[in-house]
Amino acid sequence: MRKDTSNTRFTVFIENARMLPEHEISELPQEKRKAVTGKEGIWVEVDCPEGACSVEKDQITLPVGGVTTKETKGVWLRLFCPDNQCSIDESTDLP
Question: Cα–Cα distance between 11 and 22 in angstroms, integer?
């Protein structure tokens, strides 16, 4: 993923997506087409097997390639278990 810092846009590869041709866009429901009137963008179609995509509060999460994952280790693991020297077998239920 490449981030363009001048206008905070992301360049990503969306796997199994295709741009919709004009004739398919014209077949979309009127309310979908009306919602984007005057806006720049493209209509794409993406495969979402087994719930790979989600829609919440007007935001869509899609599976993409070329994106590096964030570090998920917390502060404790970074300080006391550097370089993956610890093994976590199960979580605990501390109050």
Answer: 23
- Cα 46 to chain centroid distance, Å, stands at 12
| Residues 11-45 pLDDT 10s | 777 777 889 999 999 999 999 899 899 998 888 88
Reduce the DSSP state of residue 48 to 3 states and report it: coil
Q: pTM of the entire structure?
A: 0.49
SS3 of residue 83 by DSSP: helix
Q: How many other β-carbons are positioned within 10 Å of the β-carbon of residue 12?
A: 14
CA distances from 3 to 12, 59, 64, 72 (A): 9, 19, 14, 21
Which residue reads 């363009």 in tokens? 4
DSSP state of 69: P
Q: What is the pLDDT of residues 41-80, one digit of tens each?
A: 888 888 887 878 888 887 888 777 666 555 555 666 666 6
Would you tell me how many other CB atoms lie within 10 Å of the CB of residue 14?
A: 15
